[in-house]
Amino acid sequence: MNAVIQKALASNFLYQFRHDVVAMTSAAVLLIMVLLAVFAPFIAPQNPYDPLQIDIMNSELPPVWLDEGDAQFVLGTDPQGRDMWSTILYGTGISLLIGIFAVMLQAVIGVTLGLLAGYIGGRVDGFLMRLADIQLSLSTLMVAIITLAVFQAAFGAQLYGELAIIMLILVIGIAEWPQYARTVRANVLAEREKEYVDAARVIGLSRLRIMFRHILPNTLTPILVISTVQVANAIVSEAALSFLGLGMPVNKPSLGSLIRNGFDYILSGQWWITVFPSIVLIILILAINLLGDWLRDALNPKLYKET
Amino acid sequence: MALLEVRGLEVEFPLRASKLKALRGIDFTLDAGERLGIVGESGAGKSMAAYAILNLISEPGRIGAGEIVFDGQVLNELSNEEMRHIRGNRIAMIFQDPMMTLNPVLTVGTQMVECLQAHRTISDKDAKALAIQKLREVAIPSPDKRFDAYPHELSGGLRQRVVIAIALLLDPAIIIADEPTTALDVTIQAEIMGLMMELCDNHQVGLILITHDLAVVSDVTQRMLVMYAGRVVEEGDTQEVIANPSHPYTKGLLQALPQKNEAGRPLNQIPGTMPSLADVPPGCAYNPRCDHADDRCRQELPELRALNGGKVACHHAEKLT
């Protein structure tokens, strides 16, 4: 019986999904991009991290359909002679990696603090929420720029280049925790008044167990929905930081650093270096956001769409 | 000595300038295996008394005075951790709405095993076996299948049976049932009450039944308390109280039963409403609604005193019986 109902639920969810063109398309696009990024080493004609495969003589070649294009480089090459197509594949991977891990970090910090604030309440709540207010009053980019600039100055560009991924994940992860904390706290405040929480206390369960095992699963829906939006936000933040020269270094580019990389050449006619990564970034963000919107509607039973 | 003894229990909620007293000093005892009913209108403090026993009054409310002695321990002086071992383990509680008391995202089995493992060192396998045995005891059909069911897959009656099974899981000494059948269908109510009586008898579990249904109280319990505005106004043997109520409020309640009224006539009711706890009238809290109130009732708080085998808090009880 259990299995039957679960199947029915799943199929209802799937039914909604299959009958929503936007959701289907964005999921397909996202899936393709993730697969391309994951299997980049097998798909890409060139390894852009391997200096031996790059020839400076091939620099700034236009895409293949233009006059001077080379069949070897479909989307042209960048100023270092790297194949744009390969670099974009690897760069998408780095952008996604930073986005996903930064959001996981946000979620861990935010959910934990939100649960504590909502369930314990009182001074703990007051302290954590004021902390969140302070964090939110400083924009993510500002915090990130200051931290990364100081780090870069203190440790030098060499070490920074090696640690850039971890630094970006940490900075973006820590800067955006209040989003989760506030949402979770609001949900916990509503859930903790429900009788099943009283019942759990009456049974004699510990506070931690009630928080993480009983209340948390009941707040998962909003967590899931903000997670999609936050992944998109984190990727954009990373791109913005890279664009400002504080993100991924040129020899290990993300989409943002590729865009910046090409930006210097856009006025001299080599538009493809900036335009292709930009298009990829836009499609990626759009796909994630559309999927997030659909997920929000689909998981909210109060918002039945007329079909 | 009684298993549970509540003495002069007061629960208060601090306000800006004053304190709001939700319980204004109640006393009662419960022997092992005894079934005690607590009746009263909404807001009389019935549930508050139950929460106070388990030390679960939500902030900023607190126990202002009095003590709760259970099995030789003063419960309101125990630490949180010590109290946690009493809850569920020695004293269990059943709530009104079985729709709300089970966590919707965890299976029945998970919730039962979790409860067992919170109090005992027991393997998953043994815990499951014990849980299924308890489900069988509360007459749930095919308990091994229900063990893996989510609460939404069960009917209201089955769910309340699961809640009772969880309450019985650790063989507690006392079960506090806060209106356990109010949310259920009338036919199911009788089944569930019958089941609870049977289980309490079999396991020698004391039962505190909180309800405003006098019929249930008279069917199930041996002794009863009548509460009004945070105080006990009458206490005694259930059949005795129902047959010969001493307090005018108890009389009023019994007069209001539809059975006591003639068909086609308006129902008898007690005029007025219970005072807000923020301004309980001086003297006897019931005086504004009482036909027999005089100046003494308006000034002097009647103490709970022995009368005809029971106890009553009314200045005029002798005259009225």
Task: Give structural notes.
The complex is a heterodimer of chains A (307) and B (321). Chain A is an all-alpha fold. Chain A has one domain: MetI-like (MetI-like fold, Orthogonal Bundle), CATH 1.10.3720.10. Chain A has 12 helices and no strands. Chain A starts with a helix and ends in an 8-residue tail after the last helix. In chain A, 72% of the residues lie in helices and 0% in strands. Chain B has 321 residues and is α/β, with parallel strands linked by helices. Chain B has a single domain, classed as 3-Layer(aba) Sandwich (Rossmann fold). In chain B, 34% of the residues lie in helices and 23% in strands. The mean pLDDT of chain B is 87. Chains A and B meet through helix 8 and helix 9 of A and helix 2 and helix 4 of B.
Any key phrases for this structure?
heterodimer; A: 307 residues; mainly alpha; MetI-like fold; 12 helices; 0% strand; B: 321 residues; alpha/beta; Rossmann fold; eight-stranded mixed sheet; four-stranded antiparallel sheet; 13 helices; 12 strands; globular
Q: Topology of this protein?
A:
The complex is a heterodimer of chains A (307) and B (321).
Chain A: H1 2-18, H2 21-38, H3 40-43, H4 84-120, H5 122-137, H6 140-175, H7 177-191, H8 195-203, H9 207-215, H10 220-243, H11 255-263, H12 272-299
Helix pairs in contact in A: 2-4, 2-12, 4-5, 4-6, 4-7, 4-10, 5-7, 6-10, 8-9, 10-11, 10-12, 11-12
Chain B: E1 4-14, E2 19-30, E3 35-39, H1 46-53, E4 62-70, E5 73-74, H2 80-86, E6 91-94, H3 98-101, H4 108-119, H5 124-137, H6 143-146, H7 156-168, E7 174-178, H8 186-203, E8 206-211, H9 214-220, E9 223-228, E10 231-237, H10 238-243, H11 248-255, H12 295-299, E11 305-307, E12 310-312, H13 317-320
Parallel strand pairs in B: 3-8, 3-9, 6-7, 7-8
Antiparallel strand pairs in B: 1-2, 1-4, 4-5, 9-10, 10-12, 11-12
